[in-house]
# Entry
Amino acid sequence: MAGVVYLDVDDEITSAAARIRSADGTRVAVVLPNGSRVATSRINFRLLARDALTNGKTLSIVAPDPATRALAASAGLP
# Structure
């Protein structure tokens, strides 16, 4: 089963990780808006990926911004 987590522009990495952990299913699509704080660093995506792996979840990043998608991909997230 897959879950979807919609992040707000002002969500911090800690709240994003907590919301992903509590999402239903093992596959989680994370939807990031333009200007998301989470999308400012490759390290944020690496932290999310590691936390998801630890909790048995597979993440997919959905974002309208190509730079955000590129950062996520560089951290190993599709």
Notes: The longest strand covers residues 2-6. Residues 2-74 form one domain. The helical segments are 13-21, 42-54, 66-74.
